UniProtKB/TrEMBL annotation, chains A, B:
Keywords assigned: Acyltransferase, Transferase
Keyword Transferase: yes
Keyword set includes Nuclease: no
Classification of source organism: Bacteria, Bacillati, Bacillota, Bacilli, Bacillales
CDD domains hit by this protein: NAT_SF
Residues of the N-acetyltransferase domain: 13-152
Organism for this UniProt entry: Paenibacillus tundrae
Protein name as catalogued: GNAT superfamily N-acetyltransferase
């Protein structure tokens, strides 16, 4: 298993992972060809310094992914945060330590880029995910609040 | 009252606001001259596309601030998120709608930059903040989890 920063060739596999999920099933659209919204979004990620998607690859197949965004900030004496979004591991590879290895890789990347904190939000309905993050040392000290502002 | 993107000249006032806070008091260091950590952090924010601090100004005084980071992502059909951090309003100006106006300005900025969602985390001990965000329409659907990775 290896970990690399995703390129656009990995995008279909990433969208497939996001779709193959309890909540993602209704939010995502894994189709061929891939909806243009994803291609455009990937280009925007690549344009932004500090924003990347990391994939776990086994036997040339994408088996896990997460997004890591480095966010410099003023609070906490100028702490830079590493923010994690969109964590997924392929069903066939669950319970084998893939998620933990993927996080350890992402945390090393974040440290190398000056982060002193990693943060994420997890849906309160995802009980397994919550326990997984607690095992990694995360503390659920905050509420994660969302406001949809799209006009659609 | 007006809202503008902060420049380094506003930084001491921003740090003063962050320090004058129940939790900030032990985390921040408002001193003259300002600790270099803040100056360096502000430079990193300015270097990152999509990252900015917005200040509310009344009578040439900074009376409120927040950080808005635009984060393109793949999940939710390529949704771009506007992430808010470090929200503060000067004690003397509480209960006068400053926070709400500051948020409305930030939300307009986020929409103009293609965001379809605004997200933030708020410490579970900040009950007033939680109610404030709920009034604005935010839903506490997620847990906000943090992991400190600094070596200090």
């Amino acid at each position: 298993m290896k970990f690399i920063t995703a390129t656009v060739e990995h995008l279909p596999a990433i969208v497939r992972l996001l779709t193959d999920d309890e909540f993602g099933a209704t939010r995502e659209r894994y189709e061929e060809p891939l909806p243009l919204e994803y291609i455009d979004a990937f280009a925007r990620i690549e344009e932004q310094i500090g924003n990347s998607i990391i994939v776990a690859i086994d036997k040339e197949e994408v088996i896990g992914c997460l997004q890591l965004t480095i966010i410099p900030g003023i609070a906490r004496l100028g702490t830079t945060r590493g923010q994690i979004e969109g964590v997924r591991v392929s069903h066939d590879y669950r319970g084998k330590g893939v998620g933990e290895s993927l996080f350890n890789y992402a945390i090393d990347q974040a440290k190398a880029k000056g982060c002193e904190m990693i943060q994420l939000t997890t849906d309160k309905k995802r009980k397994d995910a919550h326990r997984f993050y607690e095992r990694l040392g995360f503390v659920a000290s905050h509420d994660g609040m969302k406001l949809i502002i799209s006009n659609e």
